[in-house]
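S.,

As promised, the nicotinamide-adenine-dinucleotide run. Input:
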Amino acid sequence: MKRGKIIIGLFVVLLMTILGGCTENSQLYKASVDYSIADGIIILDEPARSPEQQSMIEFRCAPMERVRVGFVGLGMRGPGAVERFTYIDGVEINGLCDKYEERAERCQVYLERAGMPKAKVYSGDEGYKALCESEDIDLVYIATPWQLHVEVAVYAMNHGKHVAIEVPSANTVEECWQLVDAAERNKVHCTILENCCYDHFELTTLNMAQQGLFGEIIHAEGAYIHNLEPYWQHYADNWRLEYNQAHNGDIYATHGIGPNCQALNIHRGDKLDYLVAMSTKSINGAKLTKELMGMDECKQGDQINTLIRTHNGCTIDMQHNVMTPRPYSRMYQLVGTEGFANKYPVSGYTFKFDQIKSVASDENGMPDIEALDHHTFAPVEVVKQMTELYKHPVQLQLVDGVPLQEYSLSIGGHGGMDYIMDYRLVYCLRNGLPLDMDVYDAAEWSSMGELTRISIENGSKPVKVPDFTRGDWDKVDGLTFYFAE
Ligand SMILES: NC(=O)c1ccc[n+]([C@@H]2O[C@H](COP(=O)([O-])OP(=O)(O)OC[C@H]3O[C@@H](n4cnc5c(N)ncnc54)[C@H](O)[C@@H]3O)[C@@H](O)[C@H]2O)c1
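Predicted complex:
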């Protein structure tokens, strides 16, 4: 009897301890992995690497003579990718898959136009499984709704396929780890299709940054500001608005953060340390979800603002807004000790005046304090010359004797950047080179969605960004885009 009372007592103490410990954490119940709070920072648990896994930093697969591709998800985005691949040498398109058969079937026209044989069509909710199991496919290219990215990618990787996943590649931190673990376990590439890293401005600016033109970069800005009003009703089965309605946070951060992380050498000498995020209330989102879905609440604030600090002391400022009538913008800004680059809303560069002599002086040789031209963008002519001079080697890479930048313009896809992205993916696979963006990029950039939500839902508390490389973030010195000898 006495023993029973002691056990009950212990149980009560244990329960109180658990409940007491949870008070501070109670709003975090939705985090996809376990967490703790230390010094006011929310820290999500990082699973250890299992013995059968290997680091994928600088991973190379054996060179592939031909890259045999299967596409999954052929709605608004996917068909353009099928068409672009018909303009890349060494490609076979062997699988077309969509939940709706007619969407997959419609893409045969691109193959026909290119004189390529018809591809096998897969359809239905689980049609992707047969495509991933197929012996005649090396690369699975995924442009499904976000909710399916990881499910399809992990299935493909478990069947030995390389995967390229649209953005964001994963929705939660737990899903990010699934991608990392599947790539490391199966020793296959898992890349993120972050096309904005291949925009001409971003590529040239990255090269300028790597050549030291901006000195040491201390701050970067990036965003996804795109009023999606004309598109909401066209997403298959309303997947996108459903996701926005149910999740707050910067759920589409990769266009903004991807090019910033490349310029800051994230997991190539620096790493994202922690972030804080804040959301506005939802007005347009709430109206929209009421009208289209009959829902009384929209979790997604109309604008999300995030600040990130890196281990080496740099900051990144990000915005997400798909609800209000702002001009399209990815912001894209680099602030360095010696210079500055900005893409939206006005694009230009500024360099310290000892690099470009634009400062005026009066007749006594004193600085003319009225002359503000050294506080503005460098003159248009100078920028034009610098832009030519500092083209990224990827922009100059020759395709049939034509520089890739020029070639991409003739094919298109967001001004050519989509083609450069696809071309580089196939080129690196065919030459057995590390890809420009690896699985850790995919995980770091995609994890923003859940990490920002957790910060917002907990009074903008700082949230630590997981180290998806598991300690390898400083093993490589700087980002390299590889070329065959
Ligand atoms: N990088 C960019 O610039 C860019 C631009 C647009 C879209 N995207 C991304 O592309 C992806 C697709 O977006 P979208 O605009 O084409 O959406 P969408 O709704 O037009 O297309 C999604 C397609 O996936 C199909 N699908 C659904 N379930 C499926 C399943 N189980 N198996 C196979 N197919 C299935 C749908 O039928 C639909 O055809 C998203 O991840 C989006 O973020 C990226």
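The CA atoms of residues 272 and 310 lie 4 Å apart. The pocket of nicotinamide-adenine-dinucleotide is lined by residues 72-78, 97-100, 103, 125, 127-128, 143-146, 148, 166-167, 193, 195, 235-236 (CB under 6 Å).

- D.
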